[in-house]
Request: fold
Amino acid sequence: MRLLKTLHYMDKISLIIPCYNEEESLPYLYKELEAVSEKMPDQEFEFIFVNDGSADKTMYVIKELKKGDERIHYVSFSRNFGKEAAIYAGLQKSTGGYVALLDADLQDPPSLIDEMYAILKNEDYDCVATRRVDRKGEPRVRSFFAKEFYKLINKISDTEIVDGARDFRLMKRQMVDAILEMGEYNRFPKGIFGWVGFNTKWLAYENRERIAGETKWSFFGLFFYSLEGIIAFSTRPLLIASLFGILFCIIAFFLICVIIAKTLIWDDPVAGYPSTICLIFFIGGIQLFCLGILGQYLSKTYLETKNRPIYIVKEQA
Ligand code: UDP
Ligand code: MG
Reply:
């Protein structure tokens, strides 16, 4: 069935656009999409808007656009499931041999799509992805933590996660099918793209501000998101917990030896209530920290084993 579908639409480009409260951006975006399709007149397109439980008129705008353009399709969720779920839904709905992911706010310039398509057609790549070369317009603190996060996760994860990588990319069907096979509940797209492999060419472009509306990311939102990324694509923190354990056993062993020796040789049992309390706090803290790490993995496993759907569709067309 899938083979048939793939053969049938081999040359079509599917564009997937996750939208969460994007009523203001969508008209601008659609204009750009039209411009792209005019630049590639012989190319068949399909635009898949995924409405991720928006609270504004996003769904209305999409329906209005659909009236004038039959290439438009949509999936609307029953509530906000997150961009990751929206991407997954869009990939499932796509029928093209080439599939692109695109933000609704025009931070990802749709005008790059013909260049990306040409690369996939003429060169031996399965995917053309984009990364930003700078972080203009972003708060300094955020850029700093983002950089540190990429350094850290690449050190502790076997999956390569590229600094500044956007989700904006054009993929061949084969790669899309590979991503669809990863049906995990905790989805961290940047990790998933890296994990499935395939040849990826990176295009760099300068960061742009969003055309309208506001970003959905707060600083702490991003912070917890990065922790999820680490947990989803590395088990190294568990190893760190074990190493802490071993290290503290060794230290404790030496301390015990010192105390026994002191008592036997100099008859000098160490007095010191404060130092004892400090140690208890310190070791107690480390223990809770490690237990927390364990708990994080356990909670992810718990959610995974429930086998809940990644998203719930309210309507689609
Ligand atoms: N988005 C979504 N669901 C969410 C949050 C965001 O579908 O829960 C969409 C949003 O509409 C936009 C894209 O994901 O098209 C990127 O979101 P945003 O611009 O807020 O993120 P940023 O560009 O700041 O990383
Ligand atoms: Mg954005």
Notes: The mean pLDDT is 84.
